[in-house]
């Protein structure tokens, strides 16, 4: 919390799409920011964000974006994290805290250590568990983070005041903030988020490659609709996530393959009892689950 | 269409849950039925259906259910189809047409040939592409079939008048009726419905078996919610479907495994270009798809 009494008087956001744009709108809704500065690769996207009132000003250079800035949020696809951190390092002042919204955290921590060096303690790694298949500044909304979890994976070098600043900003956005080590975050997210995205993409790709693809899509119903909703997600963003969290994702993919092989064997030998028991376990767990994210 | 001018004056429904109960309510809404008779394994379920107004009368024996009946719908889990058909055969009058709502059709056709013999032409195999994770007569609703596809897989022995009768009943329920051969139906449904159910059950079962299952479920978000919605489906019903459509399902599971292996290899060798191309194919197909079912 800065001298102005609000978590971040001036915020610079790299990547003004669904995640970054919603952060801006949520902070504005809470009166928790005075000025939001947008930075990004595509001038056109920044212009749209400006027109929509998502950001207040466009910065063309990192120097301009970082000048007098209290908080920087990286909300671009995660492959850009090392590049952005390297670009802002020369302009990073003591009073500026940097956080990110990337879906993978071990790689973000490694990138921050490499790019920020002795200033790594100014980087607080974070991940809001929120999103949607729509992207771009048009998809941004002030309530995206209401009641949603934000996971911070603090570094030993993070001073408590910096953690509090990032936590206060996310709480101003309506989110709940929780902490865990980065490797644990990456395993959990590989399991409940990254793997399902791979599985949904794989199903749609499989059907798309079938000779009778049109007929199949034609008779797909509500189950298919919900199961594959996440297969409409941004290819670039999910390419980056899959590669950034490669090791944890491969572990989960292999565990999933084993489960699918067990199920396949039950079907092949027509083992109704085993199949029903496995379905019942899943069904019960799913019925008792309520969205925490 | 019977002499009364409505598709089926008296309808007997075996299995008065979501599917059978919604058929009853939709026919009633359309004024397309005079009396709905419920039959089932569990007396308690039938009593609830009666109390809810889903059915008008409970039949205790097949003889009672079939007496003066225009149309019979089998809407019990598909493993019961042979048993039910065998039980009604002695009471099947010329004026009665039998159809079913089973998710697998080759097995229903085989069961009908075996159980009904020379009367197999009275059986019109059908499958409404509609449903939901809720079940029981409480889940039944009159609009479940509005704008949804119903697939008929006619037999060579079906007289046109019987096909028309079944088609008229489903159209009265608000559905669109389409026809295709039973093997094609089973392949298409294995691909767009049965396989996704297996995949969703497998993911939830995998997470449930992890040491840190509670933590994982705790951080699962909206993507997980939609992807696994169908994993809350009835274990008994999906056990039956998996076994009834075993051959077609195994073919699709193997094709899916190959696709997943391709994707895994791209991730393992950090082939971002191939991964993005595959995601983009799926994403584009999914975005251009609209629910037909």
Structure in words:
Two copies of one chain form a homodimer. By secondary structure, the first copy, chain A, is an alpha/beta fold. Chain A is 50% helix and 11% strand. Chain A contains twelve helices and nine strands. Chain A has helices at 18-29, 43-51, 62-66, 81-88, 106-116, 160-172, 182-208, 213-218, 222-227, 235-244, 246-268, 272-288; strands at residues 10-14, 35-39, 57-58, 71-74, 97-100, 123-124, 126-128, 149-152, 176-179. In chain A, the strands form two sheets. A six-stranded parallel β-sheet of chain A has the order 3-2-1-4-5-6, sandwiched between helices. A three-stranded mixed β-sheet of chain A has the order 7-8-9, covered by helices on one side. In chain A, helix 4 runs parallel beside helix 5 (106-116) and helix 7 packs across helix 11. The longest helix of chain A is centred in the middle third of the chain and has 27 residues, at 182-208. Chain A is globular. The model of chain A has no long low-confidence stretch (mean pLDDT 94). The interface between A and B is large, with 91 and 91 residues.
